Each structure stands twice: as structure tokens, then as C-alpha cells.
Amino acid sequence: MKTISFFDTKPYDKIFFEQKKEAYGFQINYYKDKLNGRNARLAEESDAVVAFVNDTVDRAAIDKLYALGIRVLAMRCAGYDNVDLEATKGKLKVVRVPAYSPYAVAEHAMGLALLLNRKLHRAYNRTREYNFSLHGLTGFDFRGKTVGVIGTGKIGQAFIDLCLGFGMKVLAYDPYPVAREGVTYADFDTICREAKLISLHCPLTKDNEYMINADSIAKMQDGVIIINTSRGALIQSEALLEGIKQHKIGAAGLDVYEEETDFFYEDRSNRIMQDDVLARLISMPNVVVTSHQAFLTEEALENIAEVTLRNLRDFFDGKPLQNEVK
Ligand code: NAD
């Protein structure tokens, strides 16, 4: 029986990993803390480490895990921008779950877009206080409007399915276009100029950090709705805030935030919010922030547990690693 050290554990993770661990021959030590260079020693006497999106898998953490004899790191997520891959070379194999439910994320993105356009978050609060006024709740039909989809991989394609179902015109940007009826590829500037709704579905890389910034926002249509379920640093948050203050941006739905590591997934309701930009964004009537929850469906959690444990079993059985990050 091999032992896994599992970092940043949440109750909903545990349910599915507990159901499946024995079938794959693992026992699991769960830690609430996020992995970092200081607490990596918790993995002592383990054979593998499982981490998540906001763990700090930097050189210090990797060197410590390697010194403890760990040779494999399983990310229980698709993204791995929080892993210093250079530092893992020759030390740790890194595996991930490339797709667990693109529908979960796409549906959350569309949910945010619909909520913000039709001001459902405000309507919900009003009617709870018997305020039945419709003043300020006017939206627009999605049908016939142009949506800009940035990144047309698994999640982007699932989001496009939903947009086409709504009768939207789809403009897409991706360095690797995929020919598809109803989808026109265009450059990022064209999308900024023409789209009434922009949804981000690309990974965060060195090249596209802050792709939504003061310059790109200036090119956008007045009243544009921006949805980010990908990675926070695709958007320069201060520029977004300024665009909202100037009434340039009609609404923003953020499932991710560039400084989310210190806040997201935790109950911070008893503390003073130290991030002024996040506080100001949350205070806006046309901004909705969710706590990196777009993936959170039963189907996705089950797939995450299944594929993470299978990735680790393949490693220990010396099989080819289908989901290795290189
Ligand atoms: P994917 O690899 O299937 O697709 C990503 C696409 O983005 C690819 O087609 C790629 O060519 C394209 N791309 C790369 N760089 C680009 C750029 N600069 N501009 C435009 N397109 C670019 O990935 P996926 O499964 O569709 O996931 C997309 C992203 O969603 C992930 O990288 C992750 O950051 C995010 N994600 C978020 C959650 C959540 O819960 N919020 C869950 C899963 C994934």
C-alpha cells in the first residue's frame, strides 16, 4: 500500500478520494494546509504528493519533497501554472487531470454571464426584501449578439456549444484554431472591438499575462461583459476596476482573481479584507466574484479523484504516464 500526502484538503475532495483510494491501493494523509516550501516536510514517509491550484509548488517545495524521497507530484486539476516545472526536472514527475468536466466550467461561465446581464443577483436581493421594482435591471438578448471566446480548447468548445445554442455570433481567438461551423476566428483586437460578451478560456502563460489591460479595455465596446473562469492574472485587476468605474465595462464575472491564493476557498468573513482592489470589485453592483468554483460539480469531482489516483497507480506500476506535464 502506497501513501499519499494530500494538501489543501477540502471536505468535498475527501468524499470522492475516500471512495476510490482502496481500489487503487493507496492510503491518504490529508492536510488542510496549502503546500509550500516550509510545510513540504509533512510528506515525510509518503510515496506521493497530491496538490491543487493554489499550492505553492516552487523550487523550495520541490527540493524538499525530493529530499524526502518523493518522486511524483499529482496535480488534482488541469492547470499547473503554480508548479515550477523547471525545478521538477530530473526530480519529480508531474501528472495532472487534463479534463474532468469542461461542461462544469463552461456552464459556470455562462451562468455568470446570464446572471450579470439580467442582474439576477440584484433581483434576488430585492425580492427578499419585498422590493419588486425593476428599475435598473434591464439586460439585453444574447440571441444575435457577438461573443468573443478566448481559447477554444475543451472548455472553450463547451462554452461555444452553449453560445451557439443561445443563437450568438461566435468570434474566437486561439493560436491553434479548430475549424467549426458557426465559429469565426479573429485576432484579439477584433474581438475586443466587436464582442459584447468576452469569456476567457485559455491557460495563463508568460505571453498572455494581463491580456485584459487598460489598452485592450479601451478598444472594447461600451458595456462589454467580461467573464474569467481561467486564471486571475489574465486580467490586470486595477485596469478592470478602472474600466468599471468609468462605466466602460458593463459587468465582470470573476471565478478567478490574480491574488486569490490568500483568500479563495477559505471563510474570511471574520477578518478585515486587506486587498483593496478585490474589496472594491466585490462592492460593485455589476461584478460577481465566485471563489474558483467553476469546476465544482459531482461529475468533475469524481473524475478528478479517479484520474488522479489512476495517474499515481500508473507511475508506481511503471506504466506510461498519459497525463504527464512536461
Ligand atoms: P485546453 O488545453 O483544452 O485549451 C486551452 C486552449 O487555449 C488551447 O486551445 C490553446 O491553444 C489556447 N491558448 C493557449 N494560449 C492562448 C492564448 N494566449 N490566447 C488564446 N488561446 C490560447 O484547456 P481547457 O481544459 O479548455 O482549460 C482552459 C483553462 O481553464 C485552463 O488552463 C485553466 O486555467 C482554466 N480552468 C479553470 C477551472 C475553474 O474551476 N475555474 C477549471 C479548469 C480549468
Q: What does this entry look like structurally?
A:
- There is one protein chain.
- This protein has 326 residues and is of the alpha/beta class.
- The chain folds into two domains: 119 residues, 3-Layer(aba) Sandwich (Rossmann fold); 188 residues, 3-Layer(aba) Sandwich (Rossmann fold).
- The chain is 33% helix and 16% strand.
- The chain contains eleven helices and twelve strands.
- Strands 8-7-6-9-10-11-12 form a seven-stranded parallel β-sheet, with helices on both faces. A five-stranded parallel β-sheet has the order 2-1-3-4-5, covered by helices on one side.
- Helix 2 links the parallel strand 3 and strand 4.
- The chain is globular and about 60 Å long.
- The site of nicotinamide-adenine-dinucleotide has 30 residues, from helix 4 and helix 6.
Tell me the major beta sheet.
7 strands, parallel
- The SS-based structural class is alpha/beta
What fraction of residues sit in β-strands? 15-25%
What is the terminal-to-terminal distance? 27 Å
The strand order across the widest sheet is: 8-7-6-9-10-11-12
User: What's the total helix number?
Assistant: 11
The CATH architecture term of the largest domain is 3-Layer(aba) Sandwich
Q: Can you tell me the number of structural domains?
A: 2
CATH topology of the largest domain: Rossmann fold
* Cofactors, ions and other ligands in the entry: nicotinamide-adenine-dinucleotide
CATH superfamily of the largest domain: NAD(P)-binding Rossmann-like Domain
- Tell me the Rg in angstroms: 21 Å
Mean pLDDT: 97
